[in-house]
Amino acid sequence: MPVLNHCKKVWTTFLSAGGFDMQALGGLKLVSASKGKILCELQVEKQHLNRLGGCHGGLLSTIVDVGGSLAIAAEDMQATGVSTDLNISFVSGAKIGEKLSINSRCDKIGGTLAYTTVEIKVDDKIVALGRHTKYVLLAHKTNAELKRAQASE
């Protein structure tokens, strides 16, 4: 539970910025987490659809971005870096009312880069597979400063 609670705090900071994450993924639910892994869910709603009534590719790409960031947070990181590369394969569609299951993992976190994988499913059907690379050098410095500040409180 401590990893999940930590990730929820990080997600709250994402949402409190009031930007695109809040608009696109305000309904994202963090379900479970362990070191370097997180499971989230999102109910597909009208604002998530493309003009053909399927889940918009931009939404799925945003999920890969955020899912990768939350997997990095599950490595006990408060700051999660900045994206350097994101790719996604759209495998099948998702429709309004379906629940997306988002499994994200941090494959490697180094001093400079972190590599993540995100799998988006509806039931047992793969909707999209993504990879997300983030530059984390400055995030490591920010995390060290935050931990020093918390220790002195």
UniProtKB/TrEMBL annotation:
It holds the Pfam family 4HBT. Residues 53-125 form the Thioesterase domain. Gene3D superfamilies: Hotdog Thioesterase. The lineage of its organism: Eukaryota, Fungi, Fungi incertae sedis, Mucoromycota, Mortierellomycotina. SUPFAM superfamilies: Thioesterase/thiol ester dehydrase-isomerase (SSF54637). PANTHER family: ACYL-COENZYME A THIOESTERASE 13, THIOESTERASE SUPERFAMILY MEMBER-RELATED. It comes from Linnemannia hyalina. CDD domains: PaaI_thioesterase (cd03443). This is Thioesterase domain-containing protein. The keyword Ribosomal protein does not apply. It comes from the Eukaryota. Keywords: Hydrolase.
